[in-house]
Amino acid sequence: MATEAHGETTGLVFHPMDQFIVRPLFGDGPVHWYTPTNVTLWLMLAVLVIWVLFVAGTSGRALIPTRVQSMAELTYGMVHKMVEDVTGKDGLKYFPYVFTLFCFILFANLLGLLPKSFSTTSHIAVTAVLALFVFLGVTILGFVKNGAHFLELFWVKSAPLALRPVLAIIELISYFVRPVSHSIRLAGNIMAGHAVIKVFAAFAAVLAIAPISILAIVGMYGLEVLVCVIQAYVFTILTCVYLKDALHPAH
């Protein structure tokens, strides 16, 4: 909304990216690596919600499941089937890690939609750590399981012999780009959605377009809920694909 200060008219001022600023929980001092911040708080809350749903919520193991137990069982079954379908029976031993990864990203995404919350997965520092653990894990696993045969992942035997060295370089580059694309995809989608919602919320203060902005916010909010689930699914299924490459590297 336009305001007048010292005889000058200023337009609507808002900062949609301010919601992503990392701030200390106590005081206003600088943020060090050991400083408890809003990121720390909401990461811990995500872990707490997962514990409540999958540990406390299923502790009774009722024959007729409660809503919480049903939700936990459906999530468990979906991720279990994803791991088995993509990686095969060999990959099921790594299901606990993949399942934990999915749940953490899903609830971190969803908690970021609460009013006055902080979206931890909008920060590349968070998503890059998750992606780097996946990258290092599958790379180490690939060499442990297959030894030097893991390098067959980069050697396309079905291609003409003259093209194989070129394709090997391309495959090698794309392999090391994996953690970058893996992390940026998640952080970028979450950040973009939250920024758009903030923009529409700011325009809602302008009476002339307030109804349109409110409808747009509702629509964007519903879309963001879908994006939160999809991005958790995409991150997890890519992890399964990378795991399959480590277990069965040959083209």
UniProtKB/TrEMBL annotation:
Q: Which PROSITE patterns match?
A: ATPASE_A
Q: How does this chain sit within the bilayer?
A: Multi-pass membrane protein
| Cellular compartments annotated | Cell membrane; Membrane
Instruction: Enumerate the Pfam families for this protein.
Output: ATP-synt_A (PF00119)
Q: Which SUPFAM superfamilies match?
A: F1F0 ATP synthase subunit A
**Keywords carried by this UniProt record:** ATP synthesis, Cell membrane, CF(0), Hydrogen ion transport, Ion transport, Membrane, Transmembrane, Transmembrane helix, Transport
A molecular function annotated in GO for this UniProt entry is: proton-transporting ATP synthase activity, rotational mechanism
- What family is it from? Belongs to the ATPase A chain family.
Q: What does this protein do?
A: Key component of the proton channel; it plays a direct role in the translocation of protons across the membrane.
Q: What is this protein called?
A: ATP synthase subunit a
Organism whose genome encodes this protein: Paracoccus sanguinis
